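SAMPLE LOG
Freezer: B-3
Tube label: C17
Construct: single chain, 334 aa
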Amino acid sequence: MNRSVLTIVLVLAGIIAYSCAGSEDSITVYSGRTENLIGPLIEQFTETTGIDVEVRYGQSADLALLIHEEGDRSPADVFISQSPGAIGFLAERGRLRPIDHDTLALLPAEFRNAEGKWAGMSGRVRVVVYNRDLVDPSELPGSVFELTQERFRGQVAVAPANGSFQDFVTAMREIHGDEVTLGWLRGLKANDARSYANNTSIVQAVGRGEIPLGLVNHYYNLRAKAEDPSVASENYFFPNRDIGSLIIVTAIGILTTTDDTAPADRLVQYMLGEQAQEFFSEQTFEYPLAGGVQPSPGLPPLATIEVATYDFDRLGGGLERTKELIDESGLEGS
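STRUCTURE (predicted):
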């Protein structure tokens, strides 16, 4: 074999070896978290581990349905969900495989699936965001159920299509029953509650005085105040473990369609590690759930607020019925 032919053979062998290595050290993630919230962490993961990650972004519920429809043909290795409801949907349908036990041990039991099928990454608490120039704190409701009262007519914003709102409604159904929950949803509609596309638009509307109150996740207002400390919006946590201040987790799980679980396991472990948990605390203003990381200085520790807790495994099976009730109530945007 002459030198030129040998050189070509060696180059081709190198390309083949590189391609095989790349395929072994790469994973596909379907993410219900937006790129600005999770993208930097995925980039850090690749830099740290050398594992390439291809991400498909979308709404958590839509991606969960897509994974279910794709079945064994799904290219996804890992699912990241904005809410436990969507990932619970997949867990109930056998689309998730157990996560490594040592990795799960990084989390308190209440923030992971009982069978080890998914793990919570960060926590968000449902709150009322209010405009301090329009609302006296002494007049804030003692329970989320009071928002249907006449004194709050036309003053409350909701996002019926938002996953966290739907998870919150599902939890309300499980704790208080469908009849009470539907009555509350209809009460909001009858009380001229205004529907918005998402939490961000609610916080912006409250901040500019377009509407006095809104039901959102806590961190949206903290992000708004980080950008503009003078904004008039403030968070209010309901007392006495009211369902209105339910803590909801983002979640991650490994799909049964993955051929090699090692890279997927490393991604889950990374998301529960100190670096990622600090990112959630300091950059997205969420509650870190693992690694002993403390919440950001502007966030009250969970021990100091009376948040409502819930068995998140029960959300996945109730999501479809929740959407039906929201539609039945007449709230727009659901």
